[in-house]
Design goal:
The chain is α/β, with parallel strands linked by helices. It has a domain of about 90 residues: ANL, C-terminal domain (GMP Synthetase, Chain A, domain 3, 2-Layer Sandwich). The chain is built from ten helices and 20 strands. The strands form four sheets. Strands 1, 4, 5, 6, 7, 8, 9, 10, 11, 12, 13 and 14 form a twelve-stranded mixed beta sheet that branches. A four-stranded mixed beta sheet has the order 19-18-17-20, covered by helices on one side. The radius of gyration is 23 Å and the shape is globular. It starts with a helix and ends in a 5-residue tail after the last strand.
Length: about 400
Amino acid sequence: MKTSQTDRLRHIIQHAYAHAPAVKSILDAAGVSPENIQTPADLDKIPVTSKDKVVELQAADPPFGGFLAVPLDTLQHVFLSPGPLYEPSADESAVRDTIRDMFAIAGFTAGDVVINTFGYHLIPTGLALDQVLTQIGAMVIPAGVGNADLQIKMMLDLGVTGYIGTPSWLMALIEKAEERGLDLRQFSLRKALVSAEPLPPGLRQTFVEKYGLSVTNAYGTAELGFLAYNTEGGLPMQLLKTPIIQVVDSETGQSVGPGAAGEVVVTTFNQTYPLIRFGTGDLAINLDPAPGESRQEERLIILVGRVGDAVKVRGMFVHPNQLRFALSQLAGIARAQAVVSRPKNRDQFTLRVVVSDESADRAALTKGLSAAVQSACRGKVDRVEFIPADALAEDAKVILDERKWE
């Protein structure tokens, strides 16, 4: 009998409160008891714990900052992720469950020969993926990144059918093969699971159309495993069914509604290292087809950058990547900058635009820009100003906040 997400949530909250002193301290400080957390919606009662906060707690109470919830002698591995952040691992299944689900989605099965180019050194990613691949019956080449010539030879000699790693390293391998007069289409490689960096639409198209690869683009973190994915391209990414994933206002910690941007916050079911309301620092737009009724795996997110780079305008976060995406929808724009000011105590959102074609219809561009920004950023453009090229440096900030809060 499968345990429901709600039952698993209640269990992990009780377990973490009883065995992880840091979690108990966080809940006690918020005046929250485990009995107050009965459904995922109740998680909004618990403050978000940022990665920086976990690093701070580990420095104050080494090595695990009070988040270790099992006896120390039961640990099998300890990893060190950027931060630095110690990550203990026993025989828990929480992260492996997300990896197993992702492999099923990407079509990795028993009999596959997989080259795993994620790192095995200190960080958990390479080893965790390796372990799940062997469990499902695949053969793994633990390659890591580097030595492209040797990796190409192994792909040929061993009949590699699947690739795991960053999209940029996959492209580097392809280019190296072609330098040697080899054609990737004559390799056995048929599927790729890429992650850890953005996958540009043009690069995905090259993988699919030129080289005949099935490409799954996944989003996740070292601490949490995989969280979301897409298989057909585009910006929206489907959430996995576990762990519990929320998109919250980074100032209030409260869940945001459909179409709004917020921080991706995750509650794990990891009994060794229970991260409750862990802030990833990633900013995403929340897409929910049936608010209040949809299951998590029916929801989507669009990743738009890091929280610290976002600017809040009239109550809505606007991230430089959202603005870049909006601008990319129109031809004739050389570069642009959003300027946020506050005349008469009201936020004003102005677009300063350099055109690439002086004969462009400025009225049509103004209308198109306003619509594109409204759609991508959920914010209204108050004014569009067309400026000469020398008035905006090529390396100028995409969003300039000129507001004074005195």
